[in-house]
């Protein structure tokens, strides 16, 4: 993991984030024309290395062909976050950040560190897909293609409610939260555990737990409780509570357009060649809604991936899901 030092970074809110940092990884080599760049932002609570498994020779994200950049985002350490920013902006005093701030910082990384001014593809899923849409609308002169997968330009109402009631409120309602001014993140582990349990209930499709299927067994667990503990608590308990709250609030507030614009008007301004993909059974970003987004983007194509894992398919939990998502990425790059 590398760190790009942004200096004193002016946020969309008007505040300044001092000594701002953006973590990132790269794979492959930048060609002489500097036109083989792929940007692959990460998602809520997931450091960039979580995406490493999607990169490999002979696959669509082939480092022998492309220069692949995996940038982090604000609120997610080791990028600037409440957990690693010194006073007076530490913990609950961390300034309000936005998806737009993330993308502006990522654009700075490409321009200042690599002198890159053309991006062949921006792809991502979930909160990463929100960043994809922001890239297309904010830097349309730079981005040639986008592939938002299992995501949206702004979270739909159900997903905004999910971010608040499943992710944010279990943390802020924890008796040890203390307005975010806790001495140790482990003091709020009860709240993080409740985030894990709520995620286990709402992120996979309901059919994931059907007795006739018991899809969770395919992940190596011998009980539902074992799955919740091993998969979901394993993901959420190591997180810093303030970091999670900042990321959830940032995602809920995301809006890539101007005040007064409709989402249809906003998406009508996308000029990048677009492939929108959705996952069957995904409650966070349902296929019907993703199909609607595609219909509002000039020339966009829509693809639905049939998966028993729903939103969890983006973790690459089955060979079939990996192949289907690779096919979408290949189409976005070459179709």
TrEMBL record:
Any Pfam family hit: Abhydrolase_1
Keyword terms: Hydrolase
One Gene Ontology term of the molecular function aspect: hydrolase activity
Occurrences of domain AB hydrolase-1 (ranges): 37-312
Membrane-traversing stretches: none
InterPro entries: AB_hydrolase_1, AB_hydrolase_fold, HAT_MetX-like
Cell membrane recorded as keyword: no
Cited SUPFAM superfamilies: alpha/beta-Hydrolases
PANTHER family: HOMOSERINE ACETYLTRANSFERASE FAMILY PROTEIN (AFU_ORTHOLOGUE AFUA_1G15350), HOMOSERINE O-ACETYLTRANSFERASE
Name of the protein: Alpha/beta fold hydrolase
